[in-house]
Design brief:
The complex is a heterodimer. By secondary structure, chain A is mostly helical. Helix content of chain A is 81%, strand content 0%. Chain A has one domain: HPT domain (Four Helix Bundle (Hemerythrin (Met), subunit A)). By secondary structure, chain B is mainly alpha-helical. The chains are: A mainly alpha, B mainly alpha.
């Protein structure tokens, strides 16, 4: 496929990610930071996020499933996770985190568990979409014009 | 700045100040700002790092608070600002904030995804200079350099203030400089006070990027402990050793407490002096001073106060006038400084002292002026200017007034002193406000009040008067101005401080010019000319003035060393005042102030006369102003702007005459090429 066409596809996908609420303004901030010095900055950050947040996801999972729930600790973890996800512009994920924290402060275990499932789901969906997206970006970069 | 004669410190201060004034900021600033960013979240950390790099800052990142602290400890001056997350696993962000504040006194910005009010509040109370909500946008980071500049500026101010103040207090001990008066900062103990009392630090101020020595940061809590200890002991009996014992804070040295105490005392004095109305601190300082001012009243007629009140006259100017007027008679309390009470405290206290003592320092003047020069640059323009001017003027005024010539030096010293410490606007204001009466003697002082005043006094070797609480001279300037004016606090206290400096400087210069004029002025109420100057000053952009005037005034002073005439003082005062006013407000208020001042002498009220006066003053001012600008840091040597012979009566009469007919004044004053049209009446 010609470069132009690929680039067009990239643009479309990007647009839909925003339109569907997967990504927000913060993602654009990251894109703007990308420059010649760090040409793959956005992708690197996203990768870093997913690597680092895996650890957090695990901690939350454990806190929810192992014995009596320590809500403050849970809130702590989720606070961190939310900070991270909001930094990359993962809108849906961050929104679910907020819901989770509400249940947490209400000490609603069921609510927490349920919401956490949502968090994980959104987290996974976004991951896939971004993987596709970056792949397209890479393809467009190396494609020959047109 | 420790110069024994005050010069030394001033120079030091100057240099630092110079740096500070803003012109120093390296051209590429804020590029190269050294930022330490601390966040346990690697994603955020990386994003922040990239953002900060994009802002052209030098970034160091670390993911643990402990690491950050050791980095900071190892490179005390290696960073300009710290950005830290609130939530970290090994240490709470607020704890880190406190540590940094105490040990390194660097500005710290907190960050968190949590935007809850109480968390933000916590940041504020712990001393964070800003709080960012995550996700952080690059726009938020672009301006973080302001915190660095602000902090430095404040510290500088403190430095100067305490420096001057202390000098004042100390009287002949100049060496203490280290202590910057936190108090000067209106009780802003926290941030600026961080400055340690080391003189070295002051010297190091030149290095904008960071002071080399770790300073004790007087956090709110620490200060509260300090205050509690002092209150427990009783302000009079509170000695550093005992305070230290009571406070029982590990790591705090007697020296830390001593310098902090000095500042605190100044602060108290300022409060008590300034606000007779509001003072919460009851300070005995004021009373003695007030008394002295009494006799000045005649001068008060000058309406310096009014001028000061209007803020037209830079507090300094007023101080100058007052000093001039009062100087002779040491009227002290008579003058009702209309100006902001606060300000007056400073000015007034010193003025009185100054006059007598000022004289000896002739030479100091020069030096002092220089000092001021230095200051203006660094200080925030306004502030510096005010201080300087004030200091100068006051110095001059005082000198003249009291010592008959010797004063000159004193004044200069005063001025310089004042100039040196960042003239806190506040100080000026304060001084001006309440001390108006003090003017006469304090004229010199008022200028000092700005912060320098204190120093000035000391420098000159003038006895305490100036010092009063140490604030006086500089701040007083404002007040001084007020004095003459019987109006109550017309002078916007605030305006003076800033403006004063410049104004004062102006005055000083004027003083110089005044020489010729002074003689003439005598009859005509020498002050009038000054007003013109003020007007002129007003015309000029206040801000510029501040810096400029500062320099200028000194210059003028120098030139006018020969000012011996009584009028000089008056004129000087006026001039200074005028200038100050101009500076301060940058509005035509000075003119008004001037007018008022003039009127006070006589009727003090006619604005109309003021106009005339202003007119005269304008000429004077104009001229001075011009001079000032160019000279900038002229050697304020001659504080002798104020002729010492001027007795209050002389001044008063001069003023009165002025009022009645500016013409006479004009004629008499032979201002060099002053054009009187600028005075916006």
């Amino acid at each position: 496929m010609g470069r132009n066409r690929l680039q067009h596809q990239v643009a479309c996908m990007r647009r839909s990610l925003f339109d569907q609420g997967f990504l927000d303004e913060q993602f654009i901030q990251l894109e703007e930071l990308q420059d010649d010095a760090s040409p793959n900055f956005v992708q690197e950050i996203v990768t870093l996020f997913y690597t680092d947040s895996a650890r957090l996801i695990q901690n939350i999972e454990q806190a929810l499933n192992n014995g009596p729930i320590d809500f403050s600790k849970l809130d702590d973890y989720m606070h961190q996770f939310k900070g991270s996800s909001s930094s990359i512009g993962a809108k849906k994920v961050t929104d679910e985190c907020k819901v989770f924290r509400e249940y947490c402060s209400a000490e609603n275990a069921q609510g927490c568990i349920r919401t956490f499932q949502q968090v994980k789901q959104e987290y996974a969906i976004l991951r896939r979409k971004l993987e596709v997206y970056f792949q397209m970006v890479r393809q467009a970069d190396v494609a020959h014009t047109p | 700045m420790n110069s024994s004669s005050g010069k030394g410190s001033m120079s030091a201060a100057s240099s630092s100040a110079a740096w500070k004034a803003g012109d120093v900021v390296p051209d590429q600033f804020p590029a190269g700002l050294r930022v330490l960013v601390v966040d346990d979240d690697p994603t955020c950390l990386m994003i922040l790092e990239k953002m900060l790099r994009t802002c052209l800052y030098e970034v160091t990142k670390c993911n643990r608070a402990e690491t950050a602290l050791s980095l900071l400890r190892e490179n005390k001056n290696g960073f300009d600002i710290v950005i830290s997350d609130v939530h970290m696993p090994d240490m709470d962000g607020f704890k880190l904030l406190e540590h940094i504040g105490l040990e390194m006194d660097l500005p710290v910005i907190m960050m968190s995804a949590d935007d809850g009010k109480h968390v933000v509040m916590k940041g504020v109370t712990h001393g964070a200079c800003d709080y960012l909500i995550k996700p952080v946008r690059i726009e938020a980071l672009k301006n973080i350099w302001q915190h660095v500049v602000r902090k430095r500026k404040n510290e500088w101010k403190d430095f100067e203030q305490s420096g001057s103040v202390e000098e004042g207090d100390r009287q002949p001990k100049q060496s203490e400089e280290a202590d910057y008066s936190s108090s000067a900062n209106e009780g802003n103990w926290k941030s600026s006070k961080k400055r340690k009392d080391d003189d070295d630090e002051a010297e190091e101020r030149d290095d904008t990027s960071t002071l080399k020595k770790p300073r004790v940061v007087w956090s709110v809590e620490l200060h509260q402990q300090f205050v509690a200890a002092v209150n427990q002991l009783g302000i009079d009996k509170a000695v550093p050793k005992k305070i230290l014992e009571l406070m029982n804070v590990p790591g705090l040295t007697r020296e830390n407490v001593a310098s902090h105490l000095q500042k605190y005392r100044l602060y108290l004095r300022r409060l008590s002096g300034v606000s007779q109305h509001q003072s919460n601190l009851n300070n005995s300082f004021m009373s003695p001073q007030e008394a002295t001012f009494g006799p000045l009243s005649p001068l008060n007629g000058l309406d310096l106060q009014t001028l000061a009140a209007t803020g037209q006259l830079p507090a300094q100017s007023l101080a100058t006038f007052q000093a001039a007027g009062l100087g002779r008679s040491t009227a002290k309390s008579g003058i009702a400084m209309p100006l902001v009470d606060q300000r007056n405290i400073f000015s007034f206290e010193n003025p009185k002292l100054r006059f007598g003592e000022g004289q000896q320092q002739h030479m100091n003047n020069n030096k002092q002026l220089n000092l001021l020069h230095g200051i203006p640059t660094t200080m925030e323009p306004k502030q510096l200017a005010s201080l300087h001017h004030s200091a100068q003027s006051i110095g001059n005024i005082n000198m003249q007034v009291t010592s008959h010539g010797v004063q000159g030096s004193q004044n200069n010293s005063l001025l310089i002193q004042m100039a040196q410490p960042q003239p806190r606007g506040q100080i000026l204001n304060d001084s001006t406000g309440s001390h108006a009466p003090r003017l006469p003697s304090t004229l010199g002082q008022p200028i000092l009040s700005n912060g320098i005043a204190a120093n000035v006094s000391t420098r000159n070797g003038i006895p305490e008067n100036i010092r009063g609480p140490g604030y006086n001279p500089v701040s007083q300037t404002s007040s001084l101005l007020n004095f003459p004016m019987n109006h109550t606090s017309e002078l916007p206290g605030n305006s003076f401080p800033l403006g004063t400096t410049p104004g004062i400087s102006s005055l000083t210069s004027k003083g110089a010019f005044q020489e010729d004029i002074n003689s003439d002025v005598k009859g005509s109420g020498g002050f009038m000319p000054s007003y013109d100057i003020f007007n002129d000053l007003n015309q000029h952009k206040p801000q510029n003035w501040e810096l400029q005037n500062v320099g200028m005034t000194f210059d003028a002073s120098q030139h006018s060393n020969s000012l011996q005439g009584n009028l000089d003082l008056a004129q000087s005062i006026l001039v200074q005042q005028g200038f100050s006013s101009g500076q301060m407000n940058g509005q035509n208020r000075s003119a008004a102030v001037v007018s008022k001042a003039m009127f006070s002498a006589g009727d003090c009220t006619e604005q109309g006369n003021a106009q005339n006066v202003n007119h005269h003053l304008n000429n004077l001012l104009v001229d001075n102003t011009i001079r000032i600008k160019s000279e900038r840091v002229a050697d304020a040597g001659p504080a002798n702007l104020f002729p010492d012979h001027f007795g209050q009566e002389d001044l008063m009469s001069a003023l009165l005459k002025q009022q009645d007919g500016i013409a006479p004044a004009e004629n008499e004053f032979d201002f060099d090429g002053y054009s009187m049209d600028n005075i916006p009446v």
